[in-house]
Amino acid sequence: MEGIKINEIFWSAQGEGVRKGISSIFVRLAGCSLGCTYCDSKSAWHTGDYFTTEKIISMIEQFEKSYPQSQVVITGGEPLEQQIEELVSLLKEKGLFVAIETNGNHFKDIPIDWWTVSPKDVSDFRIDDKLRMKISEIKLVVNDNLNFEVIRSISGKNINTPIFLQPQFPDPDRFEVTFKLFEKCIRGGFSNVRLGVQMHRSFNIK
Ligand code: SF4
Description:
This protein has helices spanning 43-46, 53-66, 85-93, 129-132, 148-157, 172-187, 199-203; strands spanning 4-13, 23-29, 49-51, 71-75, 98-102, 114-117, 137-142, 163-167, 193-195. By secondary structure, it is an alpha/beta fold. The protein has one domain: Aldolase class I (TIM Barrel), CATH 3.20.20. The protein has a nine-stranded mixed β-sheet with strand order 3-1-2-4-5-6-7-8-9. The longest helix is centred in the C-terminal third of the chain and has 16 residues, at 172-187. The two termini are 29 Å apart. The structure holds iron/sulfur cluster (SF4). Iron/sulfur cluster binds at residues 32, 34-36, 39, 41, 76-78, 103, 120.
């Protein structure tokens, strides 16, 4: 099948990380081979249609007319499991700021402006070695498999990279666990670790 399998393209505000709150056109690609039980985009695992690069660019241009100066966020699913090289090149030719959200298992040498990497417990928090040199920020889901030792291992190789700790579920217990882990990291000397939250959940937006 030709093209890129797309789950949805929509406009909203970035809800996570350093660039939280920025007007964003999200391009959600379908498919991810990891299958995390807590995935908040399970609908993207199998559901989607194949679009040509030209069609995707055209849809982004339509959003740009209504929401000028937005960044483009390529997300998923896992976007690096598909052939997105041409799409990224064309977006950069248009002068757009392009961010990507990836689970860290893959790397492509493409001109992305902002790399958000969210390594997962199901792949032993693996981050591709070549990707490590590019990372802009790391997001970690706080669940029973994430602990100080894991964070130390990740942070040790990316000591100046912001690492956000985000609760797996937005409930009081998980917030408390997340905050305690954040405190432990700071006390342990990892000043690049930050407390994070999914702002879009609070606003009840995508
Ligand atoms: S890596 Fe991300 S997109 Fe893939 S299953 Fe896990 S949470 Fe979902």
